[in-house]
Amino acid sequence: MGMAQNAMRVWRTIGRGVTLGLLVWLLWWPASGVRADSGGTPPAVAEKPTDDKAGADKETVAEKKPPVDAGKMLAQVDRKLHPESFELFAQVTSQLPNGRTSQLSLYVVRGKGKQSAALILSPDHLAGRAILRLEDEVWMHVPGELELRPTALNHVLMGTTAGTGAFNNADLLLTDLAVDYKATLLEEAADSYLLELLPRDARLPYTKQILRVDRKLLLPKSLQQYGANGILLKTVTFDKVSNLFGFPRPEVMQATGGPRNPYAATWQLGSLKARPFPAEAFTKEFLPRVGTLFK
Q: Which CATH class is domain 70-290?
């Protein structure tokens, strides 16, 4: 009997609990949900994004582009112009202040970094003269002279009579811009980038250069070169882009002097090919024999 009475008490307790729970649920349900006949307003449902909103979200993500690395871009422009180590032939035509026009043909070889040499092939009275850049030193060889002449990057190749006019030694030796200059992005337009180039060394010929780069091709469009006190020395435009040498690049550089430089000159590329050179090719001892590199 004792066990039966205990069982009955347990079931009565469980029954009271179930009844109380059901009553609480019935009281809560009308407030939390809307019955069909209640006439109430259904609870707000989270709005699904429309196609327009989804598209806007995608555009917002697309607009978050990484910032332009001006230094990396300048290095890419250098590689678009020529390989790291190469040889080329070019002709420079200059318009002199006295109205005369002069021409000379050049053979240029360049290794990695600050190693390059340029040799005059014509006219005859200048043929054999050559300049060498070895790091930050520049030397000139004149046929018949035993010793090399020290010169500088901002000097004109052999004086104005050599016909280089607006182009100086630095222009003709074709060292990568990224090697000599630090780049900063000034402007990003729909079709181009504008970079400011500041020299890494005070011995460089330009205190500032402003380079406009074609956005699609990553090739230079124009280059303004400034000297001391912010004076514009010349403006160079890059023309006649072609695939003549196996990749798109300008064949022509047109240089127009600034207010204090009345010269104008055209640099016309004749041939260009990648080629490695031994270290000996860029030494002072080898400069008088740089012409033997012809193949």
A: mainly beta
